[in-house]
Structure prediction request, 131 residues.
Amino acid sequence: MTALDICTTFLAIRLKLEVNDELLKREICALFDASSKSDFTHKLNRKFLNDALLEKKYRAWCNKLMFDVLSEDEIYSLVGADRLHKFSKSLQVFPSVVSTALIELLPVIVSRFGEDFSNIEPINKARLKKY
Prediction:
């Protein structure tokens, strides 16, 4: 299973959605600004690396050091308030319910599909902006 497949299955169950899997996958890709299903994991990783606090949690999850919980504000920072509201509206679910589900889901996805940073120095933010 891919990261997108796991996200789709988890959110469908957690949010009690009765929607087509392909539709939900498109909505999840849009939420994380991924242009395609194959781009999803890369975009998700990059979103965490654009913020110093989120990057710290991301690195810890990748190296399985801890499962520090994201806050609702960090979810909004990660995906953007507009995208989260649009995603929630399209699925007819409250944004707070979606953010709670993402708080539960993202550490698991990152620990399984994130990049291993155990031997890598922190990413140069100037270089990151090229991507």
Remarks:
- The chain has one domain: 3-128.
